[in-house]
């Protein structure tokens, strides 16, 4: 559902498509509340992880895009500031503590959920602790995603006309770099390449990177005419990633992302 802001631009206040159905199924109170907005890729990381682990959660009523121009933290909702000091989503409120406690920052929340899941639902996005080398290969992939690929995505989408070619190349190089790390993991171990390997299970890297690779197929395709790298192995990886049930359940329709990034 789209609304028109004062600027005349259209933005979405609610998720759509598959994500809408999932959101509707998570409105009743639970021990964990996810503070979210519908377009945010950092939020999507957490949402996918919760769906994958099967940890019960409630979506905060802010699964909508609050006005990104509203930088004044005092204008942010008080309940959001309680769980996220800078007023950024995602954040979790943990109702099991009295009074409730909170966690913010997507990478930190993912670590928290991994710890929680390993002791409760017994599901994991990492190789077993008994295989530290396989785990370190995943951490190298995560480091690359967070320090290279995600920043390259933003440089590309924000680039002025004259720097678009250069920033587009940087983004492609960042994807190539990730592929090399996947290939290394496939060569050196058999348990740290996640969905990269046919028949593999979702990994923490897949969860960490999926929201941006997905937005490359809609937002970057729309605003930058971007096409993902060719090559059958990468194509099959994308196919497995974007169709992975826990990921798909958190996806709105392409127009929501395209409209959100117009701003
Ligand atoms: N480093 C943060 C980034 C989160 C972030 O930038 N969230 C954006 C939405 S995608 C947000 O809350 N923006 C609101 C604002 O800047 O006021 C994380 O990984 O959780």
TrEMBL record:
Pfam families hit by this protein: GST_C_2, GST_N_2
Residue span of the signal peptide, if any? none
Q: One cellular component GO annotation, for this chain's record? A: cytoplasm
Per UniProt, residues of the GST C-terminal domain are 131-263
UniProt-listed InterPro entries: Glutathione-S-Trfase_C-like (IPR010987), Glutathione-S-Trfase_C_sf (IPR036282), Glutathione_S-Trfase (IPR040079), Glutathione_S-Trfase_N (IPR004045), GST_Omega/HSP26 (IPR050983), Thioredoxin-like_sf (IPR036249)
**PANTHER family attached here?**
GLUTATHIONE S-TRANSFERASE OMEGA, PTHR43968
Q: What is this protein called?
A: GST C-terminal domain-containing protein
Provide the species name: Fibroporia radiculosa
């Amino acid at each position: 559902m789209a609304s028109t802001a004062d600027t005349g631009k259209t933005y979405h206040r609610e998720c759509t498509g598959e994500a809408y159905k999932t959101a509707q199924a998570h409105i009743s109170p639970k021990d964990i509340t996810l503070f979210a907005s519908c377009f945010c890729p950092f939020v999507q990381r957490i949402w996918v992880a919760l769906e994958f682990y099967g940890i019960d959660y409630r979506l905060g009523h802010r699964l909508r895009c609050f006005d990104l121009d509203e930088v004044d933290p005092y204008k942010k909702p008080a309940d959001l500031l309680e769980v996220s000091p800078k007023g950024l989503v995602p954040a979790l409120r943990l109702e099991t503590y009295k009074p409730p406690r909170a966690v913010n920052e997507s990478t930190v929340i993912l670590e928290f959920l991994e710890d929680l899941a390993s002791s409760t639902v017994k599901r994991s996005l990492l190789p077993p602790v008994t295989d530290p080398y396989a785990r370190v290969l995943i951490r190298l992939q995560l480091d690359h995603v967070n320090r290279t690929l995600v920043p390259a995505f933003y440089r590309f989408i924000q680039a002025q006309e004259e720097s678009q070619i250069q920033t587009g190349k940087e983004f492609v190089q960042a994807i190539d770099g990730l592929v090399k790390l996947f290939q290394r993991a496939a060569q050196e171990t058999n348990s740290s390449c996640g969905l990269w390997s046919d028949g593999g299970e979702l990994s923490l890297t897949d969860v960490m990177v999926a929201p941006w690779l997905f937005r490359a197929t809609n937002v970057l395709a729309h605003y930058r005419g971007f096409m993902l790298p060719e090559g059958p192995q990468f194509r099959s990886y994308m196919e497995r990633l974007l169709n992975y049930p826990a990921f798909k359940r958190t996806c709105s329709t392409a127009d929501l992302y395209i409209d959100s990034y117009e701003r």
